[in-house]
Amino acid sequence: MSRLPLVLTDQLLIDRIRYFMTVFFPRFGGMVEEPATRNLRGNRPMKYRITEFLGDGVGPELSEAVHAIAGALPCEVTFEQVDLSLENRNAQGRALYDAAYESIRSTGVALKHPTITERESPNAVLRKMCNFTVIHRPVMSIPGVKSNFVQKLDLDIIRVATGGTYQDPGQLIGSDVAVSLRIVERGTARSAAVYAFNLARRLGCNVTSTSKWTIQRATDGLFEEVVREVAREYPDVPHAQELFDALLAKIVMKPKDFRVIILLNEYGDFLSDMACGLVGSLGIGASGSFSFLPDGRADLAMFDAAHGTAPDIAGKGLVNPTAILLSFAQLLTFVGETTLGQTLRQVILDELAAGRTTVDLGGSLSTMGFTEGVKTEVLRRLQHRARS
To answer: The whole model's pTM is what?
Structure first.
């Protein structure tokens, strides 16, 4: 399947992102005008309020890395922090989640750090409260990142963010049998499908939907039915169906055949981790979660790293900040700072390709050592762009 050119002129890229954000992100769609880049020439900086959900384990170190980058950018970013660490959740209970929801409703966008799942998953609670129905997780091969997988991988994984088997913890029947419900909703499946097909249209590629519809005929069958309905609204975007187990094998054998993949909650969880493993590290996976207005446009967004709290390396300066910095780059693009978001993302990838990496990827840099290198290069490129 042919794709649009990977190298776009600045204006073409901005035009495409402006169209995408106007359609999907009305809260911020009018901001795609490179405001911070104009500030490099002496104009007044743009100001942004962003909710920051603090976490556990390596969370504080990731927050420090994000703040180091944000503080160097030619725009004013104010973080409204909500502490979702396990200790604070145990102390405050439901009131803490209510405060988290009020904050993101006020700002419209959040950056979340990894949190421990004990009695509940904070990610799952936030998804339910904010009605996040779509998770977008891009996973790509990066030159310089060591991997046992020699082929190039470039996937956009679009995951239904609620339901499946994750919504019901199940229950025991007697001592020898356990059951759980599997939940699939037409509305959430449609939101994910519309998002996936719009993304594929912009990328110039096909959409693959995957499940076990031959076995889970009611639940997975409903999901595939909804995707086919949406596919008919996008006749210019090819659509294919794959059984999930077969898809995993085909991605390993012929990854170039796949780009945008839409799937249900637990399947998306499995595929995302497998894809990150193929490209060399769970630490380089970023993620965005979205809620939608009744007319199909996105309302709220939350961006986070795909990895966990990594308590074994917490506080040692060893955590790889790539995923959270890529998430912050996604966030910047979301609020309209297209140039900043794209520049930050490209610098991160270039630093990894050059071998200037943290220990987990075979390098020697600490968390802040990598971050400082990224910050320096981002500023250099932005200043060069402003002079040109």
So the answer is: 0.78
Superfamily of chain region 147-279: Isopropylmalate Dehydrogenase (3.40.718.10)
Domain ranges across the chain: 9-132+299-388, 147-279
How far apart are the C-alpha atoms of 357 and 347, rounded to whole Å?
12
Predicted confidence pLDDT, tens digits, the chain (388 residues): 433 333 334 444 444 444 445 445 545 544 444 445 445 545 667 899 999 999 999 999 999 999 999 999 999 999 999 999 999 999 999 999 999 999 999 999 999 999 999 989 999 899 889 999 899 999 988 877 878 898 999 999 999 988 888 878 889 999 999 998 999 999 989 999 999 998 899 889 999 999 999 999 999 999 999 999 999 999 999 999 999 999 999 999 999 999 999 999 999 999 988 998 898 876 677 889 999 887 777 789 999 997 889 999 999 999 999 999 999 998 998 888 988 998 999 999 999 989 899 998 889 999 999 999 999 999 999 999 888 7
What is the rounded CA–CA span in Å between residue 116 and residue 109?
Answer: 22
Answer CATH for 9-132+299-388 from 3.40.50.11540, 3.90.1640.30, 3.40.718.10, 3.20.20.140: 3.40.718.10
Contacts of 289 (CB under 8 A, 6+ apart): 126, 127, 130, 132, 134, 135, 136, 161, 301, 302, 303, 304
CA atoms within 13 A on the CB side of 184: 24
- Specify the DSSP class assigned to residue 365: B
